[in-house]
Design brief:
2 domains; Rossmann fold; binds flavin mononucleotide; 6-stranded parallel beta sheet; 6-stranded antiparallel β-barrel; alpha/beta; binds adenosine-5'-diphosphate; Elongation Factor Tu (Ef-tu), domain 3; 9 helices
């Protein structure tokens, strides 16, 4: 897959010939996105054309709503990796600037879609490309003026509800990791490196790898989780706490830390990834380290049992 960063207006000749173009922001590359991309892939095969996906370098609401605290399911790197796995040939990452945010629907069609040489555009039923009253899927044929075909992908649902990035962000921040899994079609993952803590973990007999994560990623709600942690390319079962470490700490800072089962290595500053399976309990302020340690022993038994019974999910 070729990853191409562009700014508006798009220059011609990005690709040698025509493409099938899938449009969306695709945060999470969830089940709905995967379906849309498979529809686009089929069309590309049928037409013997490459499959191009276009997304933006940041979520439009960061610019429209001046929302600098926008929370993402995926970093750009995670999205790119998922797109490559889905068999996308070209991933266009268009810079979403203030001036770009003001263009009309017709400009978007003439100076983005047509310049990218789309033979067919594939987008979801609710895709917008400017002011939503006009720049929507209903009006796309008027702007297209017959220059490309349009495939509108209907709403995808799970148990009667829309599969959407907003719903998935909510599931993650509510600790509903199994729902997030059902909507994403894969487990939620957070990556980063291992930072230093206060060395209390070793004192407790439960050393924890403290995750330094990308601050724009969705953080599961405070509590304890059955997780898997990837170290040196290998996934280990683990238990992870998202919390303020209230028994030990005074500060109001969230820590994400994993005690990795059957593992004993120094991994400070190394990359790790955490795959989130299930919320098991909330954070408790214990009266001392002994009570915390007893609870950690119970957590370990409970979470080991969980993995023994749920090998794949
Ligand atoms: C599975 C798990 C559950 C935890 N639960 C709690 C808790 O309920 N209350 C709490 O104050 N700290 C909890 N902790 C955090 C510990 O306080 C923390 O791991 C310990 O202080 C080590 O910190 P350090 O990394 O700074 O050495 C938990 C940690 C883990 C790994
Ligand atoms: N089973 C394990 N799970 C997590 N970290 C481990 C494990 N075994 C050894 N370690 C190492 O120990 C460190 C954590 O020890 P801990 O006493 O909790 O220190 P800190 O307070 O610096 O996090 C980890 O960063 C890692 O390098």
């Amino acid at each position: 897959m070729q990853e191409i960063h562009l700014t508006y207006p798009v220059k011609e000749d990005i690709t040698p010939g025509q493409v099938v173009l899938a449009l969306g922001f695709f945060d999470g590359v969830h089940m709905g996105h995967q379906h849309l991309i498979s529809v686009a892939k089929q069309e590309a095969r049928k037409k013997h054309l490459p499959l191009m996906v276009m997304t933006f370098d940041r979520h439009p609401s960061e610019v429209y709503a001046k929302n600098n605290d926008f929370i993402y399911i995926d970093s750009l790197k995670e999205k790119t990796d998922k797109m490559a796995k889905l068999g996308v040939d070209y991933l266009i990452i268009l810079k979403f600037t203030k001036s770009f945010s003001k263009i009309s629907g017709q400009d978007f069609v003439d100076n983005v879609i047509v310049k990218l040489k789309a033979a067919t555009v594939v987008a979801g039923f609710d895709y917008t490309y400017g002011p939503k009253e006009k720049a929507n899927m209903k009006h796309l044929p008027e702007f297209a003026k017959g220059r490309f075909n349009i495939i509108k992908v209907p709403k995808q649902t799970f148990e009667g509800k829309k599969i959407g990035s907003t719903e998935i962000r909510k599931a993650i921040t509510n600790g509903q990791m199994e729902l997030a899994y059902d909507l994403l079609g894969h487990h939620y993952v957070m990556s980063g490196t291992v930072g230093h803590g206060k060395r209390n973990g070793h004192k407790l007999g439960f050393p924890t790898a403290n995750l330094i994560w990308q601050d724009k990623k969705a953080v599961p709600k405070i509590g304890v989780y059955a997780t898997q942690t990837k170290v040196n390319g290998k996934w280990y079962n683990s238990m992870t706490s998202v919390g303020y470490n209230v028994t030990i700490n005074q500060e109001r800072k969230i820590y994400i830390e994993s005690n990795i089962f059957d593992f004993n290595e120094n991994i400070y500053d190394q990359p790790i990834a955490i795959k989130w399976f299930k919320y098991t309990r909330g954070e408790v302020k214990f009266d001392g380290l002994d009570s915390l340690k007893k609870q950690l022993e119970k957590d370990q038994t409970q979470i080991k049992d969980y993995f023994a019974c749920n090998l794949e999910k």
